Fold this sequence. Notes:
The protein is an alpha/beta fold and 114 residues long. The protein is 35% helix and 18% strand. It has a 4-stranded parallel sheet with strand order 1-2-3-4.
Amino acid sequence: MTPAVLVLAGPVTRDQVAGLCDDVxxxxxxxGAGAVICDVGGIGPPGLATIDALARMQLAARRAGGRxxxxxxxxxxxxxxxxxxxxxxxxxxxxxxxxxxxxxEAVESGDPAL
Length: 114
């Protein structure tokens, strides 16, 4: 299934948070997908309202049985999310502990078995 995309444009305000959470739940219900892609490329400089909105959207998605993945996050947003201890999957980013696509682990013939 193709995940739905929710585009956040402009600075996010606290007044928008409830509506964004409703949008995430509705997209998960409508598509049946396990994730909503949140395009954050156009939100501008991130602030605490943006972090609050993303955290609440992730919580709403988890409660609905899904998750939120970010598309095109600004490095400042990624740093701020990391600073406050929030982990989001980023579209196109290899999951932690997983090899990059097309990479295979090689075994040397002289390596001892584990």
